[in-house]
Design a protein that fits this description.
Shape: elongated
Mean pLDDT: 89
Largest sheet: 12 strands, antiparallel
Distance between the termini: 48 Å
Radius of gyration: 32 Å
Number of strands: 12
Helix content: 25-40%
């Protein structure tokens, strides 16, 4: 019986030891993914900012500029792309809606971001755009990959429609989470005018006819949870200018927007709470279960060896009976 039990325990130990790396290196990359129907929104604010009054074409100081960003999963579009892409795809229809202190729209820029649900790598397909302009993204946008590494990544800038490195700047603690801090600086770059502007009669086409161009620079900062790849905080030191042309009345340039854009506190709290819950699911597949199974396998192996050793121990000699002690008759 001991021999049979030790063989069963040995088989279970081998099974646990084999299942551990399979969960981490085979199941995890295939099972953990961004859901296609995910919806999220975020509110950012730039307090004591500078904003262009398009009525007078003069910059003015304002108490606050608010940016509302939404990302809505388009399930129908993702399923259509998956049929030809041969992999799990997520389609996010995003909108960046900027309003001034009076609640009136400053700009409205839609975009469609298509990416691999598992790796967050861009997937190029019809419909990929920023403000209606077709783009071909390289690198990430909005979210880092699961199990983010301590290295630079390529990040897509929707304003300039180009990708550039975003640099890993070290590990920090943010609201009790260990996070990776990243920075990207986009130098002054000529960028398209938003297609939707706040003043009737002023369109990108009419601005272009005056010879006036739009320029932009930003310092982009992200605090990223390395387990889920989800940013728990984001900021930008953002500047925009209109330069040249007759629209400015002889001026060389005017500030269209300048401010330090930060996530609103209540959205930081909800994002940290969401990421903290999601990271437990990722850790379950990458750490808790693999290491737990490995430890269980080692314990079962040790128990099997103990039982096998006891089964092989020689039997004790039988005790002498009383008759063996009687003298032998001659």
């Amino acid at each position: 019986m001991r021999r049979r039990a030790s063989l069963v325990l040995l088989a279970l130990a081998v099974f646990c030891a084999a299942l551990s790396p399979l969960l981490r290196w085979y199941a995890f990359p295939r099972l953990v993914k961004i859901p296609a129907n995910q919806y999220q929104d975020m509110v950012l604010e730039a307090k004591d900012a500078t904003l262009l009054d398009y009525g007078t074409m003069k910059p003015r100081n304002v108490s606050k500029v608010t940016i509302v960003q939404t990302l809505k999963g388009n399930v129908e579009a993702s399923e259509k792309i998956e049929r030809t892409a041969g992999r799990d795809v997520v389609v996010w229809d995003g909108l960046s809606y900027v309003v001034g202190p009076d609640g009136k729209m400053v700009s409205e820029i839609p975009e469609r971001y298509i990416f691999d649900a598992h790796t967050q790598e861009p997937v190029h397909a019809d419909g990929e755009h920023v403000d209606g302009d077709p783009v071909r993204r390289e690198g990430i946008e909005f979210k880092w990959p699961f199990l983010t590494e301590k290295r630079d990544y390529t990040y897509f800038d929707a304003q300039a429609r180009v990708s550039a490195p975003i640099h890993y700047k070290g590990t920090r603690t943010f609201r009790g989470l260990e996070v990776y801090y990243f920075e990207q600086t986009v130098p002054w770059t000529k960028v398209p005018m938003p297609k939707k502007l706040p003043v009737k009669g002023i369109t990108p086409e009419s601005v272009a006819k005056t010879g006036t161009t739009r320029w932009y620079t930003t310092k982009r900062m992200f605090w990223v949870d390395p387990t889920t790849g989800g940013p728990v905080n984001g900021q930008e030191i953002h500047k925009e200018e209109l330069r040249g042309g007759t629209l400015l009345g002889g001026r060389e340039k005017v500030t269209a927007f300048a401010g330090h854009v930060k996530m609103r506190e209540d959205y930081i709290d909800s994002t940290v709470e969401l990421v903290s819950a999601q990271r437990q699911l990722v850790l379950l597949m990458t750490s808790y279960l693999p290491w737990g199974l490995l430890g269980l396998g080692a314990g079962l192996l040790a128990l099997a060896l103990v039982l096998e050793a006891r089964g092989r121990r020689p039997a004790e000699p039988a005790g002498d009976d009383d008759r063996s002690r009687e003298p032998v008759a001659l």
